[in-house]
UniProtKB/TrEMBL annotation:
It comes from the Bacteria. SUPFAM superfamilies: CBS-domain pair. Keywords: CBS domain. It comes from Aquisalibacillus elongatus. This is CBS domain protein. NCBIfam families: CBS_CbpB. The lineage of its organism: Bacteria, Bacillati, Bacillota, Bacilli, Bacillales. InterPro entries: CBS_CbpB, CBS_dom, CBS_dom_sf, Diverse_CBS-Domain.
Amino acid sequence: MLDLTNFDLSSIPVKRDMIEAEKVAHVQLQNPLEHALLVLTKTGYNAVPVLDLNGRFCGIISKSDIVEAMFGIEQIEVDKLYENTVEDVMHSDVPTVSEHDTLEKALHVLIDHSFACVLNQDDEMIGIYTRREILKQFRNEFYEQQSK
Ligand code: AMP
């Protein structure tokens, strides 16, 4: 059985295993929704971070945010993809972690969110920490214990 007594999440920095910002697909505030839908479709992700022109974190946009924005009164209105920007439909009230946080903080955020953006002191996004990564940490701990 997995014994987590000595698995100290508060000693592992999120920076160690995050996906670096250069490898993170993102969109910008002023991009039209059409561009965001293209990014989400081509990458296969459900949601990606939204940044301003200086790389500062502004929020997250998901496929369902875009589809919801396309609903008119009677039908889907494709024009809305060109009329609206990412800023109009994104969510900015999402929890983030700081570059000095540990997996303990990330774990709490990842209960309700599939990834957490890692920000530096200037609110620039330096990476993301995903559910997949935290599950890998638990798996590694499990196998390490089994091999003892
Ligand atoms: P995962 O735990 O690997 O399934 O990732 C969880 C979520 O994190 C994905 O559904 C995406 O929304 C986001 N994500 C993971 N990797 C990337 C990436 N390289 N660029 C942008 N978003 C990502």
